[in-house]
Amino acid sequence: MKMFAKTPKPPYYAVIFTSTLKSEDPEYDKMADLMVNLATKQDGFLGIESARSEVGITVSYWRDITAIKQWKAQTDHQVAQSKGKHQWYSHYITRISKVERDYQM
Amino acid sequence: MKMFAKTPKPPYYAVIFTSTLKSEDPEYDKMADLMVNLATKQDGFLGIESARSEVGITVSYWRDITAIKQWKAQTDHQVAQSKGKHQWYSHYITRISKVERDYQM
């Protein structure tokens, strides 16, 4: 995964996913990598940024709400979401937001 | 810092700040803690979430654009922004986004 997402000029969408894990699990890491690979193949995917220390934050960027809904409904991703919910995450919050402006150094 | 921000019902705003550091610097960590403390005292501040591994992602949540602008213009924060730009960060992207919906476990 590249460290910074090369997103186009706003507007576009950001899915901010903040989570804590019950425990370290190599199977989780494998699944997370697999999901990033799958996401990059989805229509409307723009990029992803991810960091984990005490808490994990993954921000994925999308062309529009339709692209986000399609990714949420993708079959393999649904399996991963269910495993995440029941097996890996102790808590998470997902926030869907519309990026209105950005600037960088 | 709490791990999860206890944000109200959307809409509200999220500032997604993704960065890489030139090198580890205890002075940076101190300044980051100080800025979090200052931010919590700003009008319209709703919460903050932060993680750093290969890349750092800090998401701060705000009532509206006005609150974000006031925080960007806050004097001590301006000093920190300048030091960040010239001394600590090798690269960063700031994205201002409007949270339209959220859900959690």
From TrEMBL, chains A, B:
EC no. given is 1.14.-.-
Which InterPro entries would you find in this protein's record? Dimeric_a/b-barrel, Jasmonate_Hydroxylase-like
What sections of the protein cross the membrane? none
A single Gene Ontology MF term assigned here is: monooxygenase activity
Superkingdom in the source lineage: Bacteria
Signal peptide (UniProt feature, chain positions): none
Q: Which UniProt keywords apply?
A: Monooxygenase, Oxidoreductase
Q: PANTHER family from the entry?
A: ABM DOMAIN-CONTAINING PROTEIN, BLL5343 PROTEIN
Q: What is this protein called?
A: Antibiotic biosynthesis monooxygenase
Which organism does this record belong to? Thalassotalea fonticola
